[in-house]
Amino acid sequence: MHKIGKNVTLVNHPLLQHKLSLMRDKKTRSVIFRALMKEAGMILGVEATKGLKSFEKNIATPLEAMSASFLKQPEPAVVSILRAGNGLLEGLLQIMPHAAVGFLGMSRDHDTLKPIDYYQNLPADMSDRSVIIVDPMLATAGSGIEATRLVKLAGATSITFVCLLAAPEGIKAFNAVHSDVNLVTGSIDRELNEKGYILPGLGDAGDRIYGT
Length: 212
Ligand code: PRP
Ligand code: URA
Hints:
This protein is α/β, with parallel strands linked by helices.
């Protein structure tokens, strides 16, 4: 993986890139696409959780006493931007089964490309948690910017945004508003088309996950 600027991390791990290539292929069907998205979520999740805080506690192994490292409480929160975020959420929960989970319902208006908020359900104590927001696509970044605003409004200060694909335009727009948030992505694609789709991209992530 490598850092791009202060707060953007590109995860160019060969396993992730292999899965992403399979997902980009239009012949890949929903059942496989969904499984790959979950696996991608696990790999991106490992990178996104690198900075989680831990504390030391004395335990005894079968052989001797030791000071061992555990994750700080309360558990991190994973916030999924509906619907496509749920594909990555599955992977994050696989590696962090005790995480608190939040949902932000957001759909992009096809004409204006602006996000429309339709649902919000976030865990309590957001100010005490590390928060990981997940959405596979950062295109114009309208949805990601709005979701991050809502998570900050709920009190969160330690935030990482995880996506699988980002457009350069989206990264620029996101950083202009939320430069204090770490952005983890599996790819920075070439550009957006006139309809706000990422090129070369993988199409509509929600439709491909759920076969709609
Ligand atoms: C997609 C995607 C992001 C958003 C990205 O969601 O999952 O949330 O578009 O575009 P943006 O960066 O330009 O905001 P969509 O609105 O299609 O909803 P869905 O997940 O329910 O399909
Ligand atoms: N949302 C998607 O699902 N795909 C894109 O390419 C852009 C926005």
